[in-house]
């Protein structure tokens, strides 16, 4: 039987293979270096990219702080996200959330369980917002999968809204505790603020691809580019390479091609935007290392803790299925 993990890995491999194929077909090192040079020769658009991308992370940190607790300094949340971004662009597996969790636990005086809960909820809300943006675009384009996308989003939202009240949940005290906190926060005025900040953060992140289109003289509306960016980031769930190399290029190129951009130009825009994001991740991570230094062994311990928990949950699930 194909497990969820195996299915994700299979899709990730397919996306990487697709990326290898289009890279073999369209990659031109001279053109890529020329495009990278254009980033720095268009200072206004480069500044726009930096400001928009940085602001998106500031808003994510603000949303996380509202959810997890405003008794902890904003800088802790921001640097935790910065470290997570750096780790995800260095390692082939997406384990930055381990460092994010550990840093909040260390500096926010929270238990590992509570810190991990807040990180997991932020990821869940990220995917929900990206799914809604992606779904709106899919419905507007009238793609054959529109009905399936809407059904999945509606079902997922309904489960999140009612899970705390389901009788089966009452059998698991751990789940009851965390679902109660989730409902307390998200069904209050703070919930709207959190969702608003997360939504706007993803709109701002699309500023990177919007600027890239201006820099390399491609034409597409901002709303369409917000959709393409959302589909691309949602596709990073299939992360098996540093920074999602391959999956990013495949999903961004495919999304732009669906919007009518020539395949080679779509790949060129995807490659340049991803190059910028790599440079940004290393620069922001370096800044956090200077402002809030962490020992390598600390990060390693937190990452190991998250991965060991994931493996344990998978093992228990398999045992129950057997």
UniProtKB/TrEMBL annotation:
Position of the signal peptide: none
Keywords: Antibiotic resistance, Cell membrane, Lipid metabolism, Membrane, Transferase, Transmembrane, Transmembrane helix
Membrane-spanning intervals of the chain: 7-26, 46-64, 76-95, 115-139, 146-166, 192-213, 225-246, 266-290
Keyword match Membrane: yes
Reaction(s) catalysed (UniProt annotation): L-lysyl-tRNA(Lys) + a 1,2-diacyl-sn-glycero-3-phospho-(1'-sn-glycerol) = a 1,2-diacyl-sn-glycero-3-phospho-1'-(3'-O-L-lysyl)-sn-glycerol + tRNA(Lys)
Main location: membrane
Subcellular localization(s) per the UniProt record: Cell membrane
EC number of this enzyme: 2.3.2.3
Pfam families: LPG_synthase_TM (PF03706)
UniProt membrane topology term: Multi-pass membrane protein
InterPro entries, alphabetized: L-PG_synthase/AglD (IPR022791)
Family (UniProt): Belongs to the LPG synthase family.
Job of this protein: Catalyzes the transfer of a lysyl group from L-lysyl-tRNA(Lys) to membrane-bound phosphatidylglycerol (PG), which produces lysylphosphatidylglycerol (LPG), a major component of the bacterial membrane with a positive net charge. LPG synthesis contributes to bacterial virulence as it is involved in the resistance mechanism against cationic antimicrobial peptides (CAMP) produces by the host's immune system (defensins, cathelicidins) and by the competing microorganisms.
Protein name: Phosphatidylglycerol lysyltransferase
């Amino acid at each position: 039987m194909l497990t969820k993990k195996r299915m994700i890995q299979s899709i990730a491999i397919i996306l990487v293979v697709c990326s290898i194929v289009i890279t073999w077909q369209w990659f031109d090192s001279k053109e890529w270096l020329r495009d990278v040079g254009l980033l720095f020769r268009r200072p206004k658009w480069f500044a726009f990219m930096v400001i928009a991308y940085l602001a998106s992370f500031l808003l994510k940190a603000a949303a996380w702080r509202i959810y997890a607790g405003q008794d902890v300094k904003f800088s802790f949340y921001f640097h935790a996200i910065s470290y997570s971004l750096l780790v995800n662009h260095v390692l082939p597996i997406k384990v930055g959330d381990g460092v994010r969790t550990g840093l909040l636990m260390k500096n926010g005086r929270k238990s590992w369980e509570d810190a991990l809960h807040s990180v997991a909820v932020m990821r869940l809300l990220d995917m929900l917002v990206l799914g809604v943006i992606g779904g709106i675009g899919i419905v507007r384009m009238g793609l054959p999968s529109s009905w399936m996308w809407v059904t999945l989003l509606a079902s997922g939202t309904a489960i999140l809204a009612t899970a705390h009240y389901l009788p089966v949940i009452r059998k698991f005290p751990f789940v009851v505790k965390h679902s109660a906190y989730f409902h307390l926060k998200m069904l209050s005025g703070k919930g709207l603020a959190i969702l608003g900040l997360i939504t706007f953060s993803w709109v701002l992140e699309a500023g990177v691809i919007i600027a890239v289109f201006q820099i390399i003289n491609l034409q597409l509306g901002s709303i369409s580019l917000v959709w393409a960016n959302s589909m691309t980031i949602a596709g990073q769930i299939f992360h098996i390479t540093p920074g999602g190399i391959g999956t990013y290029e495949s999903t961004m190129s495919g999304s732009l091609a669906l919007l009518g951009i020539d395949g080679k130009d779509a790949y060129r825009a995807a490659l340049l935007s991803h190059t910028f994001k790599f440079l940004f991740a290393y620069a922001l991570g370096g800044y956090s290392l200077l402002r809030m230094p962490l020992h390598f062994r600390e990060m390693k311990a937190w990452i190991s803790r998250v991965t060991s928990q994931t493996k344990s949950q998978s093992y228990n699930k398999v045992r129950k299925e057997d």
